[in-house]
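=== RUN LOG ===
request id: a7f3
mode: sequence -> structure
chains: 1
length: 139
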Amino acid sequence: MDFRTLGKTYRNGEVIIMQGESGDCMYVIQTGEVEVLQRHGSEEVRLAVLGPGDFFGEMALFQRELRSATVRAMGEARVLTVDKRTFMSRVHEDPSLAYRLVQTMSERLRRVNAEYVRAASSHPFQKSAAATPPPADAP
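=== RESULT ===
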């Protein structure tokens, strides 16, 4: 089966997935680029720009949680939708797909952890809390 013919084309600015909506599939970018955005209050923060061969929405294959980010096309982008059954079938045919997915998820988690540590260490409350000795009755 030629998966290159199965994707959907999104126009510039078109939302592919929306933060807060439910999801049950992941997406693979065939052509073009997308931006991954996360809303914090009234502010929208760009988390990443992804291109051909990259994927997003993979957490929906493993957890029934709401989407954690919005993904929007930057220019024209062709994106393949992969549901859990199709993904599992492809992994059965080629187990290295699962390894690549876990590898990418691990890299993303490492980046998020580094950003968290950087943000926490620069926050004035974190610095003052770290410099403040524990109470005398603390174990």
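=== NOTES ===
The chain has three helices and six strands.
Residues 3-123 form a domain with the Jelly Rolls fold (CATH 2.60.120.10).
=== END ===
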